[in-house]
Amino acid sequence: MTYLQAVVIGLLQGVTELFPISSLGHSILVPAWIGGEWQSLVTQGDSSGHTPFLAFVVALHVATALALIVFYWRDWVAVIRGFFWSLSHRSLGRSEARLAWLLIIGTIPVGVIGLLLEKPLRVLFSTPLVAAVFLTLNGLVLLTAELLRRRQTILAGRAARAAGSRAEARG
């Protein structure tokens, strides 16, 4: 991997991580799109899916996580305090305590699935075609959710106007 490749993939990670798009998927697709020497970043490695590129992308994700922990340190301190408060008071009476437990509960299934399916998922998702298919599916899910959200907003607005018209007609 050249310095230019490292910078481009690092910038890609930084730009895409905080949006509802897959930074990992784009890290797989961009080298495939550029082709040539870049494409070998994704395809070099052994049959188990271990590649130097994968280690680099994992390091980028760890760096992103550390940056977010540093940036949101006050929020993390509040969540950790909420966790210990919930243990000592045996209550979820604070939003920070509830969030702490939701994070723990939400992390368990992901961790178990990751441990059980790590190798097949690593091999599967290192393929540009599979990454492209899943990015497309993710985009369709996000688009559908946004359209449904807008429809609900429009319907709520119409209902409010209708109720106002009825009240005005009665008055």
From TrEMBL:
GO terms for biological process: cell wall organization; peptidoglycan biosynthetic process; regulation of cell shape; response to antibiotic. InterPro entries: UppP (IPR003824). Its main location: membrane. It comes from the Bacteria. Coiled coil: none annotated. The keyword Nucleus does not apply. GO terms for cellular component: plasma membrane. It is a multi-pass membrane protein. The chain crosses the membrane at residues 51-73, 99-117, 129-148. It catalyses: di-trans,octa-cis-undecaprenyl diphosphate + H2O = di-trans,octa-cis-undecaprenyl phosphate + phosphate + H(+). It is found in: Cell membrane. It is an enzyme of class 3 (hydrolase). Its EC number is 3.6.1.27. Keywords: Antibiotic resistance, Cell membrane, Cell shape, Cell wall biogenesis/degradation, Hydrolase, Membrane, Peptidoglycan synthesis, Transmembrane, Transmembrane helix. One of its GO terms (molecular function) is undecaprenyl-diphosphatase activity. Belongs to the UppP family. This is Undecaprenyl-diphosphatase.
